[in-house]
């Protein structure tokens, strides 16, 4: 039996949500309706939990940059689609589990392809949107 894990990488963009036609799946966040970004499998409730975990700012929108089922599964595919975007949200879906991480910076590559370690300063926090706990954390 094959294991399927889907990775979605979203870029947080701070913009004002305008008045426009909205997809059927929407969430109500502090009196403002917002929809999950296109090209993601996030449900309305998962997206609402994600926004709330990032502070629930009604002007915060995210854009889907990379999805393994659409863009491919190699490291090169990820880098080609994410580029120098920042901050980033990594969302992983495995069966009923949806979890991930937020980083306030972009991806920084090591200096050489054979470098075994590469570290850099970045704010990081993990979250669970569904499956692990009764409520998103």
Automatic annotation (TrEMBL):
Keyword Signal: yes
Coiled-coil stretches: none
Keywords: Signal
Keyword Nucleotide-binding belongs to the record: no
All copies of domain TLDc, residue ranges: 42-109
Entry-linked InterPro entries: TLDc_dom (IPR006571)
Pfam (any one): TLD
Protein name: TLDc domain-containing protein
Classification of source organism: Eukaryota, Sar, Alveolata, Colpodellida, Vitrellaceae
């Amino acid at each position: 039996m094959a294991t399927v894990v889907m990775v979605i990488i979203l870029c947080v963009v701070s913009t004002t949500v305008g008045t426009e036609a909205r997809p059927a799946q929407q969430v109500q966040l502090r009196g403002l309706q917002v929809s999950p970004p296109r090209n993601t499998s996030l449900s309305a409730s998962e997206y609402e939990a994600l926004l709330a975990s990032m502070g629930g700012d009604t002007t915060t929108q995210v854009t889907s940059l990379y999805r393994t089922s659409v863009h491919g599964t190699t490291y090169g595919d990820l880098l080609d689609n994410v580029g120098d975007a920042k901050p980033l949200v990594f969302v992983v879906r495995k069966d009923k589990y949806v979890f991930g991480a937020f980083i306030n910076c972009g991806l920084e590559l090591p200096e050489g392809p054979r470098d075994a370690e590469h570290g850099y300063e970045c704010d990081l926090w993990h979250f669970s949107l569904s499956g692990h706990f009764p409520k998103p954390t």
